[in-house]
Design goal:
about 170 residues; alpha+beta; 5-stranded antiparallel beta sheet; 2 helices; 10 strands
Length: about 170
């Protein structure tokens, strides 16, 4: 035997069908407030990752220049273009020459959102000989930064050609 349906039961089912406009507006408002609070933290995170990415790309390019010198049994240069203090990170290239003017083996386009300052306030040239040893350009540094987010990182290149990335100035 089936129970007869009552009006109260049908009304209850109809009300369980969705959200009211006020409930949806409250949820949208809460999400908007959380997004507004999280925005500055994400900008800092993005700036930090950009600087780390450029530092990593520079170090990897120095490794490539050294290995190309070993592979080709010839001098290979890494030329970092810098327009001066606090200028956008420019292009850099790896060439099979001792003065950086030869044919480009690898060329990397610059990163306009990151600013660089070299320890010489100009272009840098690193030359690796056929045995992979650095013959010119050692003991220098490149400061990478995003001034609007107050994020900085240094790439330090030793006399031996070893490059490291660190969050403090090179010593």
């Amino acid at each position: 035997m089936e129970r007869p349906k009552t009006l109260a039961c049908e009304t209850r089912r109809a009300r369980q069908g969705g959200f009211t406009a006020i409930e949806l507006m409250v949820v949208v408002l809460v999400v908007a407030i959380l997004a507004a609070l999280a925005g500055p933290a994400f900008q800092q995170l993005i700036a930090t990752q950009r600087v780390k990415s450029v530092a990593s790309a520079l170090i990897e390019s120095l490794w490539v220049a050294r290995s190309e010198a070993l592979k080709r049994n010839d001098n290979v240069s890494f030329n970092f273009t810098n327009s001066g203090s606090n200028s956008a990170v420019g292009d850099w290239k790896i060439t099979q020459s001792s003065d950086g003017t030869g044919t480009a083996i690898v060329q990397q386009t610059g990163f306009p959102t990151v600013v660089s300052t070299t320890s010489t306030d100009g272009d840098l040239l690193f030359t690796f000989n056929s045995s992979g040893r650095l013959t010119s350009g050692g003991s220098t540094s490149i400061k990478l930064s995003v001034p609007s987010a107050d994020v900085s990182r240094w790439v330090c290149i030793s006399v031996s050609g070893r490059a490291v990335s660190q969050s403090t100035p090179c010593t």
